[in-house]
Amino acid sequence: MNNSQRCKGGLITMPFIIGNEALAKMASVGLSPNMILYLIGDYRLKVVKATKIMFFWFAATNFAPLFGAFLADSYLGRFLAIAFGSIITFLGMALLWLTAMIAEARPSPLSQESATAPQLALLITCFALISIGGGGIFCSLAFGADQLNNNNNKKEERVLESFISWYIASQAVSVVFSLTAIVYIQDRFGWKLGFGVPAALMLLSTVFFFLLSHRYVKHKPHKSLLTSFAQVIVVAFKNRKLQLPPTTHHPILYHHNKDSTLIAPSHKLRFLNKACIITNNNNNSSWSVCTIEQVEELKAIIKVIPLWSSGFMLSISSSQSSFFLLQAKTMNRHITSSFQIPAGSFSVFIMISVFITAAVYDRLIIPLASKLRGKPVRISAKNRMGIGLFFCFLDLVVSAVVENIRRRKAIREGYIDNPEAVLNMSAMWLIPHNVLNGIAEAFNAIGQSEFYYTEFPRSMSSIAAALFSLGSAIGNLLASLIFSIVDDITSRKGKQSWVSDNINKGHYDKYYWVLAIMGAVNLVYYLVCNWAYGPTIEDVAGNRVHQEEEK
């Protein structure tokens, strides 16, 4: 390593990388809670159309990190991915701010017509730029780790752990700030300042990242795991006519990396094993023969797909936030006679619930259970995923019950035709939903992440991070599909749709019951997948320790 390389990276870069991500998170999260109100109020979109736009925006935002990771690994490198991502996100937010500043960008307040196609296209462009840019910024955690991986020693490992802790803490603080301060600004001072603040924060985030660009360690891009998976599938298909050896001890050799401990692939999904058979063909390119490691990495992904898909329901449930915002707008949100909680700020109770659940589980439940049993007790990551899905089901049941109470109260008070009227019902009724949603997130989301990291080889850590995000994207698309089907079926023959623009005339309670039934079915599906998956690496290690203790 030369002197210029030795001077790069290190602790001095950490505040700038963390600052970039924290400010970007603060800006992006601050836009979403009230966006449904901007679409319905200023763009005069129907609730159904506005909700679909929100679903697709959330899906794009969650899919973008996978695309960003692919570009960073294969072509751009992490520095350029974050740099371009920051600039693109800022452009999207600046453009969104201009839609609030320029009157012609929105329907005229004197007209009752919805947004024109060009106006809507401009708005969608803003959302697209913000989502695409966010996919590049997603690489910041791995980029931060690059700055500390120059030496493989204990001190460097401790610094890396500290960086990750500060990174996660900064994200949590950013989200809480967004759901309180930025949402309050939008609620109190309007969209011009409400969108201007996130744009300014994103500009500051971008400048902050570039300030120390000369000190960053910038690794060159290498082959992406997604490319590796594609190679295994293509080569296995090319070699489909080859015969597999009857046993792993057959003299046919398998291609593997140098110093690899794997001499033959596993028996599961044996068709893929044909991708690493060494043939008489002298072509050793990656698209002609793959390594055992590549094959086993793809098998690891395929094996977790059923359990991974059970997590879609959590994303479907979490994506209903726009409806809870509409509910909160019709309820009494006053804490004092002069101050009321902004409708979009109720999501902060979800974050608080996540923090408390994680802390209580780690610091109280597990130590207490271990003390009572007289030996270490730990709930596996796979089982915690199931606990989260159970609380997701409870959340949907509670949401249906609360909405039924709210709707009946609106009818009794004579507001059936006035969906904007504030009922004599406290918005605190929504907190049980937020608490249950937070508990579900704490168990399932954290459990999923830990499950992937323990089950996958270390070389697949980037995929482990992106897999949850991809699941969230698919969940958002499914939520949009379910919403459209419910709207289509319930509005036939001129009937009032369950998801009507008028929340008091609609039956959002029945819509939540449909989701609750799906949640119950999904819970059974998870139990089947859990049983079929068998013991995890974590389970095997735990059993081995238990047997040694008994001996």
UniProtKB/TrEMBL annotation:
Transmembrane segments: 22-41, 53-72, 79-100, 120-143, 164-185, 191-212, 346-364, 385-402, 463-486, 511-533
Gene Ontology cellular component terms for the protein in this record: membrane
UniProt-annotated location(s): Membrane
CDD domains per the UniProt record, alphabetical: MFS_NPF1_2
Biological processes per GO annotation: oligopeptide transport
Gene Ontology terms for molecular function: transmembrane transporter activity
Main location, first listed in the record: membrane
Keywords: Membrane, Transmembrane, Transmembrane helix
One Pfam match: PTR2
Keyword Plastid: no
Topological category with respect to the lipid bilayer: Multi-pass membrane protein
Segments forming a coiled coil: none
UniProt-listed InterPro entries: MFS_trans_sf, POT_fam, PTR2_symporter_CS
Keyword hit for Transmembrane helix: yes
Family that this chain belongs to: Belongs to the major facilitator superfamily. Proton-dependent oligopeptide transporter (POT/PTR) (TC 2.A.17) family.
PANTHER family linked: OLIGOPEPTIDE TRANSPORTER-RELATED
Designated name of the protein: Protein NRT1/ PTR FAMILY 1.2-like
